[in-house]
Specification:
This protein is mainly β. The chain has strands at residues 2-15, 18-26, 33-37, 52-57, 64-70, 83-88, 95-101, 107-111, 114-118, 124-126, 129-131, 137-138, 145-148, 154-155. Strands 6-7-8-9-10-11-12 form a seven-stranded antiparallel beta sheet, with no helix packed on it. A five-stranded mixed barrel has the order 1-2-3-5-4.
Amino acid sequence: MGRLAKILSFVRTVRNEAKVSDIKADTGGGANITAEHIAPAGDDSFPLENDYVALNSDSGTGREMAIGYIDHINEPKAGKGDKRIYARNPETGNTVAEFWLQGNGSILCSNENGSFELQSGGDFLINGVTIDTNGNIATAGKVNADDVTADNKNVTLSTHLTPALNQPPTPGT
C-alpha cells in the first residue's frame, strides 16, 4: 500500500556493504519513518527537504521504499514525449540548471547564465550564436577568432584572407 510523506532528511549510508540512501519522512500521523531510496540505475538524484516522497511497503524486509518524489515548488515544463532533468538550489528549491530532451528531437542544456541547444534540424545554438549543419556561423554580435599566429598577432575573421571563395585561407593572415 502506498502513501505520501514530507521529506525531513536524505542520508547516504552503507548497509550490508551496499551504498544506499535513506529518506526520513513525516507521514503526517504518528512516528516518522525511514525508507530506502529506490531509483533507476544511473539516476543519482538528491531530493530536498520539504519535497514529498511516494512510499511503498516492502513485505519481504518490512521496510518502506521511497519510489518517487514531488517537487512542489517548480512548475513542470516537459510536454508529450519529453524528458527533462533539472537541478535545484538547495536553499530555495528553485531550478538552476536543466537538460531537456524534447519530443521534436531538440536538446536544450541551460542554466541562468546561458544555454546550448541542438535543434531537431541539426543547427546548434550557443547563447544566441547559430552554427548550422554546414558549419556557417550566424550571430547578431561580433565574431573574433583569437588564435595566435607565429608572429604573435591575433587573427580576426574580418582580416583572415582567403584567395577565393571556397579556397583555404592564406597562412599567417
